[in-house]
Each structure stands twice: as structure tokens, then as C-alpha cells.
Amino acid sequence: MTFLKELSKNKQAITLYKYNGNDLIVNSDIDVEKIQKDSDHMRICFLDLETTGTHKVNDYIIEIALKVIEINKHTGEELKAVYEYSSFQDPGIPIPKEASDINNISDEMVKNKQIDWDEVSKIFQMSQLFVAHNASFDRAFLDRYLDISKTKVWACSINDINWIERGFANSKLELLSHWHGFYYESHRAMFDVDAMIHLITHPHYKQNKPISELINNARKSQSRLIVKFNFNQKLVDLIKSRKYSFNGTTKEWSKVMPEDELENEKEWLGINIYKSSFGGFCEKITLIDKYKNR
């Protein structure tokens, strides 16, 4: 288990502090004006959803939380919270017990509650980048409810930060928080949002800040490599080791990666999977299509 080095000086115990987001309280007197393209600052909206389940088509949102921060896009500093919104949503069906056991949201809590989608749309209009911890999940739900979501650039605090390279073997938000010395009340939307912001702007990082890495990676185009081959267990084990995912409907393996890694991966596939030259194909993913549900 990996902790920040300064937490590990006493090898007999690790002390965690409770993070409650007090440094991310929004000043309601701030006039949130439009940021110009040549500004040194940008606005990033961090968001989290609680849902009735994990199916991106058949399940429903039951809670939403969004918090907009303003930050120096070059240094990752000068952070301030400028806008926020949260709400429950009545899904119109009983919340499954499996979901309530995780998020502690009951049918009574969401009864007759509705998300103000005009308010959410306002936040999407004022922000340049949208971040979630597992962005493909949250985006799939929001794209169903909000057309403007489909036109924005999304980033992921799991995939757009190389946590392994930073010494952390697991990218779950709770674990990363513990390894950075704090804990919080998890699986409620705004608590998760505040913890996400605190994690990737953590004061431990004086250089190479996670927030800066995320912003830089959000600017990079990606490609999806798609591979298909006749079943062979050795090849399956090999391609799974490269973190390809399998589509049971199309019988294809795919992996999303930065374009600057594409040629090396195609060469590897040619040698190890096709035993000749690369025989699959690739799709270019534009910035606004990143983390979009296929």
C-alpha cells in the first residue's frame, strides 16, 4: 500500500484527516463573467452522479452535484470555487436496494424532487472543461438528459492522470484519498466532487500537479484501436494484459489511447496478434467525443 512519503515517516500508523470541503465554499457575491480565450484562467466543472444502477441506458439519475472552479491553466494554482449546484431527482421508480446500500439515498429523500436542468445548462455554458471520476459513466447519463453535454470537452480524473506513474496502484477515489492522507463521506454526490477536487489539487504537489496533467491530457486527441480475431485463449490473455476491452455484440476488442502512442501499439498488435502487419482499424476521437458512450 502506497502513501505519500510524508505520511509514512511513522511506520507504525498513518493519520488521516477528515476533508469537508471548507476551502471550496462558493462566494455567492462573485460575478461569474465569461472567460476570454486568451485568459490565463479557465473554469472547470467537477461533477458526480448517483444513479439507480450502472446501466447507461436503463438506469436513472437520482442525485447530481456540480462545482465550478476557476484556476490558472498554466500553473494549476490560484484555485477558487465560483459556482455550484446539487439536487435530488425522483426517478419515478423505487430505488433498488443495491443502489441505496451504496449511496444511502432512499425513496423518501428523492420523492417529488426534480433537477433544474436550466441551472445545469447554465453551468455547462460557463465552463470550459468537465471532469468526473470515471467520466464515461457520468457522461453517458448526462448526454441523455442534456444536449449541451454532447458539445463539451470531458476529462477523467482516473484516465487522464497517470496514478500508477505517481506510485498509486489503484485509482478508486476513496483509496487515492486515503493514500493522500484524508477521508470524506463518500458516495454522496457533492462530497465526492469536493474530494475529487481536493485530490487532484492536493497541496503535496509543488510541481507536476495532477490538475495540470489532467488539463494537458484533455487537450490531446485520441484514437480507438479496434481488433478482431478468431478465438484463441493465449491471444485473449495477451490482449487483456494490454487493457483492451471486449464488445460481446461485435466480438471486437478495443482500446483508447493518445495518438502519439498509436504507431507503437499497431506495431505490437502486428507482431503479437496478427503475426504480420497490423490488421485492425482505428477511429479518431475528437476532443468533444472523448468519453462519449458508444
Q: So how many helices?
A: 9
Report the helical percentage: 25-40%
Helix and strand sequence: EEEEHHHEHEHEHHEHEEHE
Query: What is the strand arrangement across the widest sheet?
Result: 4-3-2-5-6
Overall body shape: globular
CATH topology of the largest domain: Nucleotidyltransferase, domain 5
Number of strands: 11
Q: What would you report as the Rg, rounded to the nearest angstrom? A: 21 Å
Low-pLDDT residue intervals, each spanning 5 or more residues: none
Q: Characteristics of this structure?
A:
globular, single chain, four-stranded antiparallel beta sheet, five-stranded mixed beta sheet, 2 domains, alpha/beta, Nucleotidyltransferase, domain 5, Alpha-Beta Plaits, 294 residues
Structure description:
The protein is an alpha/beta fold. It has 2 domains: 5-218, Ribonuclease H-like superfamily/Ribonuclease H (Nucleotidyltransferase, domain 5, 2-Layer Sandwich); 222-289, Alpha-Beta Plaits. It contains 9 helices and 11 strands. The chain has helices at residues 97-103, 107-110, 117-126, 135-145, 173-179, 189-200, 210-218, 233-241, 262-272, and strands at residues 17-18, 41-51, 61-72, 80-88, 129-132, 154-156, 182-183, 222-227, 245-247, 252-258, 281-285. The chain has a 5-stranded mixed β-sheet, sandwiched between helices. Strands 9-10-8-11 form a 4-stranded antiparallel β-sheet, with no helix packed on it. A two-stranded parallel sheet has the order 1-7. The two termini are 35 Å apart.
